[in-house]
What does this fold into?
Amino acid sequence: METRAGDPGAFAQFNLSRVDSPAFVVDVARLRGNLSILADIRDRAGIKMLSALKAFSMWRVAPLVGEYLDGVCTSGLWEALLAAEHYGGEIATYCAAYKAEDLPEICRLSDHVIFNSPGQLARFVPQIALARAGGAEFDVGLRINPLHAEGEVPRYDPCAPHSRLGFPVDQLTDEHMEGVDGLHFHTLCEQDFEPLRRTWEALNPRIQRWLPQLKWLNFGGGHHITRADYQRDELVEFLKSVKAETGCELYLEPGEAVALDAGILVGTVLDTHWNGMPLAITDVSATCHMPDAIEAPYRPAMLGELHPSPSGEGPGVGHVADNPHPNPSPEGEGLVVRLGGPSCLAGDVIGDYRLPFPAEPGRRFAFLDQAHYSMVKTTTFNGVPLPSIWLWDSDTDALEQVRKFGYEDFRDRLS
Ligand SMILES: Cc1ncc(COP(=O)(O)O)c(C=O)c1O
It folds into this structure.
């Protein structure tokens, strides 16, 4: 999978030895820039814009998010609790399936409770009534599958065949829509405006008859709005016309776009050796710190990388043999070196990089665009330490360590 982010921005000037290693460093100025772009779209289109906590939930910057956006979307009880504790504004909760014991609290905390199937919604009608009788005020939503695939990779495509995410719109009946205040769909991933327009055009005729009874429509996330070449004016015009045509309040809930290119993951080379190509073991682990590098897979961009590896691909692609200039030793600048983590997993490989420095122990490096979907996914597999979390303001150069993790954090997740 090709990632379309990777703009170093102000990190090009950041001295990596100012932080410990490994460490996430988030640039608050870049974050503010992204948030102001999203707020501008929101204001011009007259819609509501939520931040998806699943992508980026560094709650230290919750007040900043709250300055710009209307609230957050959450994926279940724990994110809803985090939202209520730290974030302001609305809370829209969607979960692929709720547990009965979580629902009362979710109803109490959320403004929108969005179900994945009419079946689960119907089973929970008594709990919903009870929550409302107890004073909870929330709308009920239903996630639908528009049956219009725009995804490049099936793993990230909720409209892929047999997808469990959202109720297939061709099965929707009047009975299913009883008590439903809003419809939700989420079908995009790092996409431009056109896929959203096409999705709406495919979906609109299928839901026309229920539009008069709906209060809102939620178009999910996956909109790469803060990427420099995203078609923002077209998005604004589209949202304005859908709002006018349907009379519904519209919601977008981007995650990645909030923190796009706003953070790096700093690491250190621990050791090097040679096995048919130069190898370097680092204190950054793909499996523990950037699992999407394996799962997607994608190849995280490196700060200052001289130029992409010959194939531009991630681990497991046997392109090294095709390298016309095989490197005789792991040292020296500009060599293609395979970087991997300290864990026992043979596949804990980040990728092949033409390093902008000699591959020798102690050297610092950084992967770009790591604020979203990395910090939220870290694990301590193998007892690999969690990266600390730093906040940097590239406008003022203020730098602060927000969180450092220790052995106790590893121990306390186990028993
Ligand atoms: C329901 C829902 N909303 C919003 C998002 C945020 O998407 P993104 O981070 O791609 O903008 C996701 C991501 O998976 C999602 O599943």
The mean pLDDT is 93. The pocket of pyridoxal-5'-phosphate is lined by residues 52, 54-55, 73, 94, 186, 189, 220-222, 253-257 (CB under 6 Å).
